[in-house]
Amino acid sequence: MTKVELSEEEEPPSTTRFISEEEILREYIQDRLDRDKTNLSPRSIEFIQRYFPEATEKDWTSWRWQLKNSAKTIGELSRFLNLSDNEIRPALEINNTLPIRITPYYLSLLDRDNAEQPLRKSMVPVIDEFVAGTGEASDPLSEEHDSPVPNIVHRYPDRVLFLVTGFCSSYCRYCTRSHMVAKDKCHVGIKAWEPALQYIRQHPEIRDVLVSGGDPLTMPDPHIEYLLSRLRAIEHVEIIRIGTKVPAVLPQRITRTLVNILRKFHPLFISIHFTHPDELTPEVKEACERLANAGIPLGSQTVLLRGINDDVAVMKKLMQGLLKFRVRPYYLYQCDPILGSAHFRTPVEKGLDIIRGLRGHTTGYAVPQYVVDAPGGGGKIPLLPDYTEGRDGDFLLLKNYQGKIFRYPDFTE
Ligand SMILES: *Cc1c(COP(=O)(O)O)cnc(C)c1O
Ligand code: SF4
User: Fold this and answer.
1) Ligand 2: distance of its center to the CA of 354 in Å?
2) Do residue 231 and residue 377 come from a single domain?
3) Lesser CB count within 10 Å: N end or C end of the chain?
4) Domain ends where: 127, 157, 187?
């Protein structure tokens, strides 16, 4: 475990609930015991034997080992994948690619030969990424414009987005924050949070803090605990939310120790970024269950991506699968127009078709809210298929999920 150096003024107030040394030790031992009896999937075992013959099963289940052994260049990727021309061209033609990082765990889910596999397309760069399309921008949501202090985006009246790190364990090619996460540097450091914390403290209208990045759960335990305790110490902060993809790309990170830190800061919510039903492995199920068992309500966020999940059947499988993992689908995002995203974007009509294909056809809990994050900083705008068919006198004509028309006696004033 990395030791965090806290200077005097960063020492959190004594009212915050830190877990005791004894508890940390006990959970640490439990984590080690868990690892000793790991039942790795045949997929993982085969992958380890093929690509990391020197690694033990315990190495594999250590999130730090996973981070250390992530693939970070196209050259490294070529060890695991038979790269297609489109995947090799960024290396041949452009030196300065956006950052690459894929954990060995996630690599083990990728198809060695099929460059069209959805998970592979979401993580492995292709030459299309370097073609700027109409209306694309490096900061399409104008987050910098709504940033009163570094690392805070304050766009809505009662809540803020707090970007606590620029680091992710795996970089999605379509990432909205690629202009920020791009550095693949280590974490911004807890000292850099001070202006943001002060801003939140000085704005009593902020009752909800959404901790995001980068990926907050890639930070060491003491940093996470320090951050959450600082936020909890602010009286008007009612709820804390964490946005993360870690449970899907680095499920080994969800240790008992981490979960026991998180559960001390309720009400705490976690939104997990999922892309495709192939991500729903037994490892991910266990990670989600640990979080849910700690009383943390779990939501999901998914970006609609062409050729990856822009299909009713795929999306239904993902949303229903998430419910089985006790994750409630929250948002389906229209892909933001970041630079080089044209090959990922679908028409908005596609998103509406997907919602039309879910609503009524499956559990209401499995239907996320479809939103477009308005370019220029307008925030999330919800879109719904139009279920109205005009009026007939005092009656509003409504179309149900099967396309049948029903009449509702509606008053006009
Ligand atoms: C998405 C987002 C939020 C949170 O929005 P909710 O609809 O409350 O989940 C807050 N701030 C910013 C800048 C956001 O992009
Ligand atoms: S996990 Fe989130 S912040 Fe990180 S690269 Fe993917 S979309 Fe971007």
Assistant:
1) 23
2) yes
3) C
4) 127
Q: Evaluate the CA torsion angle 100, 346, 329, 211 in order and state its sign.
A: positive
* Co-location of 211 and 321 in the same domain: yes
pTM: 0.90
Residue 137 lies in a domain: no
Structure-token match 């009656």, residue found: 395
Give all strands (DSSP E) within 292-365, no chain letters: 298-303, 328-333
Q: What does the radius of gyration of the chain's CA atoms come to, in whole angstroms?
A: 22
Atom number, ligand 2, closest to the C-alpha of residue 245: 1
What residues does 388 pair with on adjacent strands? Answer: 398
* 330 in active site: no
Secondary structure class of 303 (helix, strand, coil): strand
If asked whether residues 211 and 294 sit together in one domain, one would say yes
- Find the domain containing 158 and state its range: 144-382
pLDDT in tens, 53-107: 999 999 999 999 999 999 999 999 999 999 999 999 887 777 666 789 999 999 9
H-only helix segments in 233-271: 246-249, 256-262
Is 283 contained in some domain? Answer: yes
